[in-house]
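ERR on first pass: missing label on line 2. Operator R.T. fixed the label and resubmitted. Corrected input:
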Amino acid sequence: MNLNYSDEQQMLRDQIQKFCESDYSFEKREAIIKSDNGYDKDLWKMFSELGWLSVPFKEETGGLGYGPVELTILFEEFGKVLVVEPYLSTVVISGSILDNSNFSNKSKLIGSITSGEKHISLAYIESNQTFDHSSLSTTAISDGNTLIVNGMKSLVLNGGNADHIIASVMLDGEFALVLIDQGLSGYSSNSYPTVDGQTCAEIQLENVSVPSESIIAKGEDAINLLSEAINLATLCISAESIGCMTACYLKTVEYTKERRQFDQPISNFQVLQHRMVDMFIETEMCKSLLYKAMLECDSNEPTKFKSVSGLKSQIGTAGKFVSQQAVQLHGGMGVSEELLIGHYLKKLVAIDSLFGNSSHHLNKYISS
Amino acid sequence: MEISFTEKDLQFRGQVRSWIKNDYPAHIKQKQNNGEKLSKQDIIDFHKALSLQGWMGYNWPVEYGGTGWSSTQIYIFQKEFGLAGCINILPFGVGMVGPVIYTFGSDEQKKRFLPNILNFDTWWCQGYSEPGSGSDLASLKTKALKEGDHYIVNGSKTWTTLAQHADWIFCLVRTETTEKKQEGISFILIDMKTPGVEVEPIITIDGEHEVNAVFFTDVKVPAENLIGEEGKGWTYAKFLLAHERFGIAVVGASIRQLNILKDIVAGLKNPNLERKITELEINLNALEMLELRLLSDLENGGHPGAESSILKIRGTEIQQRLTELFVEASGEYALIYPGPHGHSNNQPAGPAHAAKSVSKFLNYRKASIYGGSNEIQKNIISKYILGL
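pass 2 clean. output:
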């Protein structure tokens, strides 16, 4: 039994931490959010050069061959400064689907992800679903060597920037994942901001004609690829939320030591001290559940889905508790757009809603 | 990272399991299964059986007759005992005064006291809290004044667990009035049979006699019973607190209780209660992993400190929550109150777990109060981790 990070993992953390501390100021983040793309192309290129976009990919497809543990390190550090670059959608979700598939074109596509050239987003949500993403109204009908795709996808993370989407469709009545280029005729997207400063899109597919070699997977295979990718992504955003929670309690400790009321720093008041201890404890408990889930994902245990649900359920409630208390202890400053604190709250609300909220995962935990 | 134990540790776990299965005293197991109250002799029998196996000094180094086990082995040992529902090993001798004696005591004291702890020939109790000194322990007032080769002890201790059975008590006493109150405290061992020592029961809200008030009136204690130096008692007391870190989360016992509760609730068709139990289970998973993280840190040369206060806080909160949910699962039968002597001769109506559930719920209010109340634990985290 050894739950300590290896030297190599620690080096990766140090490298990411250094970037976050020196190259990702609050002002810079604000400017990135206001920019046209909603992310910084130069930073994305830098991520590629540092090898970060290659982290989860298998070595035979040109990746670094790292796993869930390294991804959670990256997300935890990103969470501390609220990095908005679309790592989750392109690298984790689309990357995982492609890397684990038998798709003929996968090496080239993965190459275009790791080089930072292309963005690929998963389009699997439709507006009439409630967390059941297997019942679809998007259809693909075979017509010789092409498929005709019709449907409407919503909440496509980073969809406005995506060069391709991986769409879930009913292919001649069978569940399938299909790669679709954004430039095709009949493809239109409408991008809008999310509560955490990122973007997502609604994508309409109207008689889009796609070559039949664009089918990534069908049937059981496709369902498994999807659930594996979403499970991994859920683990990643849980780690991200632990980064947010850590920053919340540390910044609150720092702030209460400086803020003076009644002729003394407010950190002298025991009621506030114990509140901050509660924030710390909640964070540590979530971190402990993260260890369990990430190690089970790493060794591909059959229990990994249940453990990720336990984690996500806890993250949802704990994340909101910690960030709401951070806002409370910052007083009026906590609700100001000009301070990072309120943005952690928004991020943690976004994380709770993404891939199933706390109640959803508690039910999932009970039934698994 | 590697979450599983080594082959060697798994073999060790096998030995522990096999002892519990084959050598745990059968008459005690039977009483526990029937929900009967255990006698003083039962508790002695259990500890004697453990001594016979050579496991009494499970947390001691080999040179003092202990097992010399690694932190991981101690963890496994405690967890397995909890999972199997064994009686708690009384901490006062082997967990508390023993390590203080072998660390700070004279050779004479080691020879005199340590073997009796390992054989469980001496039942120890702990004289820390006083009527006016709870969380502010250093404000204690029990005085020990030196007269020739004796100390004369006057004062009182309270909440003394199982003092009614104890042969000896280790006490924090004031040997000097100093400006800094911690500096005048000494650590002394007192034979409970000494004239002037009186034990009075305190009955707790579950109707049980577990704790006591102990009074000292001109008690003559030989000076050789003082541990280490005069005025260093506070240092020894802090050492003692730091010594017994693992196990305070009582993860093994809570997992056992959770599983029993899940079996009970499985037949109740109560999704609201099931949900509460699931939330508790996730919290317990987190606690278990936190303990393993701290253990891993310790085994890799780290010195986890105030983090273990989380184990105390969350461990006791979970224990208490479990007792609440047992009461909830008992429904209307939670009305039945077994009183101080159990119900061995008069099995009440309702499910077997019901009558015990309220008693245990009442009894476990103590968990967040003893061993440094949970508020004191939060002060520790606040000061030593958050730097407030």
